[in-house]
Amino acid sequence: MKQLCYASCSASSPVTLLEDLRNILSEARDFNHRHAVTGVLYYADGHFFQCLEGSEPVLELLVEKLSKDSRHREIMIYGFKSIDQAHFADWSMKYVSRSSHALQYLNQQGQEKFRPFALNADQVEAFLVHLYDAQPDEAA
């Protein structure tokens, strides 16, 4: 099993952001359920951070789809890594809101606003631990 994390900037306008976020989650949950992919989505301050877990061919397909998705720009792929088990096994796509404990970790790293492109590899791993344990936000 592989894990893929990426960050991107939202290309949505303030008017369409909430609808776009709901659509992204709905589409991801549907696709992921059909393809045995699990994951988490974190959105804050105009940036997405997503971690996906599944087979490498399916994750590569998702990267290709992501590159064509007009709701994302400036996509940064953190890379594929092998994992022994899914960390988000209960979630086709868990959504964690900005107000979660993950935000406290980011604040400790000196981020007043969420800037995922500034995270180094160790900080991405630590941020993921907070996302594993975070309560999901059902509002989106």
Automatic annotation (TrEMBL):
Top-level lineage group: Bacteria
Domain BLUF: residue ranges: 1-94
Any one GO molecular-function label of the UniProt entry: FAD binding
Gene3D superfamilies: 3.30.70.100
Pfam families hit by this protein: BLUF
The name this protein goes by in its record: BLUF domain-containing protein
Species of the source: Acinetobacter cumulans
Lineage: Bacteria, Pseudomonadati, Pseudomonadota, Gammaproteobacteria, Moraxellales
